[in-house]
What does this fold into?
Amino acid sequence: MVQPSHFGRYVVIRRLGSGGFAAVWLVRDEELDAEVAVKVLAEHWVDDLDVRRRFVEEGRFLRKVESPYVVGVHDIGTTDDDRPFLVLTYADRGTLADRIEAGPLSLADTVDVIENVSAGLQELHDRGVLHRDVKPENVLFRSTPTGERAMLGDLGLGKSLEAVSRVTMPGGTPAYVAPEQVRGDVLDPRADLYALAAVTYAALAGRPPYGAKTLAAVLAVDGPPASLRTVRDDLPAEVETVILRGLSQDREQRWPDARSYAEALRAASQASIPEAATGRSSARPWIAATIVAALLGSTAGYLGWQYGVNRQWVRVVDQQQVLSVELPRDWTQNRAGSGWQPQGATASLPGLLVSDNNNDWAKAGSTVSGVFAGVLPPGQLPDANNLPGPSGCTVSPEAITKDSTATVRYLGCPAGMTTYERVKQFQGQLVRIQVRAKDAAQAEKVLDSVDYKPK
It folds into this structure.
């Protein structure tokens, strides 16, 4: 294929890839001085009116939703040889298919990706659009100021829910398509949910659940796929249960929507993470709730941050932008902030964890410096003597319940570290805080910097 020099005002840099119907090019919008992607209809389809219609319709579907989790359409045009093209958000970090090819993803990374993709799917469904081709190749990654974000792209097979309220033509990618879509049944969002569950399975196993090569093979499937736990022994049974429900051949047995699937997957994924505190107990389960096990999110992409006057310290804000904390910049190697679900809560609540290493935060004897803050369910401010704490720590005599705070300081927790546990009431809202540091003065400064501002 000869590389064109431009598409309208867009100067071509290089080809990113191609498929049966279109090629995608990296281009520069010289007016805006920005890199974007241009998807151009393939030459041999230029005279096929139905293909042209579906190509342009993809752009219309994408324009229906303005979401950070769905590839955006910025412009539409026609080449000099009369081929339509779409100007799209450039995903500079490749696809999920690329990553699966390199090997299975970790459970934490998989859950993060699926949460992003499910958010995009839910946006499409809420606006009356069915994707119909959710697969790893259509999960794209884009850099953000604090990490990266997964996005859902390629609505070449997309349909409005109004259109799929009637019998449809079979279609989809065999390894990921729902059986009712192959049969040409009337479709609803649960067809996309099946594909999302199949993508989850593939991310964890390194291969799709059934590996069907043809649409006919999809209808020959009988029974659940091979157990994920035979492929990897680090997955809790709860995770497999969530995925298998999503892969049910009977759509009535699947999760009702993408949002509930993602929430269930996140909750199930925590079953494998050890408890952060095993020492003192409390009659209040939401006070004793494990921090790491209840956290939602594990990558830098969930947090915003900004420098303070002293650039060695930064203020970090959770995804919902209600919790923030100021801390030394060298503590921020790992950041998670899409929320948490403490015991006693019926849904996720704002929460963040920032530390040298989130994976080691919960380990016994950990010397990782960091801070956790999480909104608690409604309740009364507890007495400081009832606050939980890491095992093996000596509680200082200054366990204090005062005004709107209950605070305990742990010394030698472990050796050479100072740990604070606090529950603070902000405008009637309880927030749990834990800080661990080698420098006691730093720990106290971080503890006092935590702020809660409801939207």
Remarks:
- The chain has three domains: 6-88, 96-272, 291-452.
- The longest strand covers residues 10-18.
